Amino acid sequence: MNNALMAEILIVEDERHIADVLAFLLQEKGWQVRRAEDGTTALSMVRQQKPDLILLDLHLPGIPGLPFMKQVRARHPAQAIVILTAQGEEDDRVRGMEAGADDYVCKPFNNRELVARVQAVLRRTLGAPPREQDIVQGPLRLDPAGFRLCIAKTHIDLAKHEFSLMEALMRHPTQVFTRDQLIAKMYAGDEEVFDNAVDTTVWRLRKKVREIRPDLNPIKTIYGLGYRFSGESS
Ligand code: CA
Predict the structure, then answer these.
(1) From the CA of 63, how far away is ligand 1's center (Å)?
(2) What's the gap in Å between 119 CA and the centre of ligand 1?
């Protein structure tokens, strides 16, 4: 069961540039995103992958949004659905909400509002994420609930893959991780990953830490092998 921090969201939208923006906004929040451009594809993805939430444009080729939603509802009564409607089309919005949408967002949407509405529905349907214990190693404290790395009283916000890399290292501070092992921690299997993703992320984490503590190197390079946690001055 996913919690609201790690949710999987299916975007059903045929206009690619809008789907791109939606995917970007949701991924930035750390959610996993899948995409479908028509109702038929989306239905089979819902069946196979059971997304935590569907962000559904009502104007779709093939099966339009409302019949799509009815078919989903018939099989998965508890499926969380947020609909996208065009501004001014109040009929759509009302019929969508009547058909069981959990919420709606009007196009053109405000980015922050969209994310806030998705988040609110996820919280309602998945519950608040369990409060995890902070991981403390040396001067560094990793806060899983806030996706932050803390040094003394200063907080560094981490992207999801930065957090996952740091989490792996700090949970096993004596273990050397290969790049492949770290990639597996950082990304779900279906994401596109660049060859130097680990090195770039390590570089960025070091930079973020050094902006606060110039003498501190959080990650040690083990030549020929990979990386290990380090809470030492360098
Ligand atoms: Ca559309």
Answers:
(1) 12
(2) 22
96 C-alpha to center of ligand 1: Å? 15
Domain range list for the chain: 4-127, 135-233
What is the CA(19)–ligand 1 centre distance, in A?
9
Second-level CATH architecture of 4-127: 3-Layer(aba) Sandwich (3.40)
Tell how far the Cα of 59 is from the centroid of ligand 1, in angstroms.
4
Judge: domain 135-233, CATH 1.10.10.10. Answer: yes
Query: How many CA atoms within 13 Å lie on the side-chain side of 82?
Result: 26
CB-based burial, 28-54: b 16+ in 10 Å, e otherwise: ebbbbbbbbbbbeebbebbeeeebbbb
pLDDT tens per residue, the chain (234 residues)? 456 667 999 999 999 999 999 999 999 988 999 999 999 999 999 999 889 999 999 999 888 888 999 899 888 888 999 999 987 778 888 888 888 899 999 999 999 999 999 999 998 888 765 567 889 998 999 998 888 999 988 999 998 899 999 999 999 999 999 999 999 899 876 677 887 999 999 999 999 999 999 999 999 999 999 999 997 776
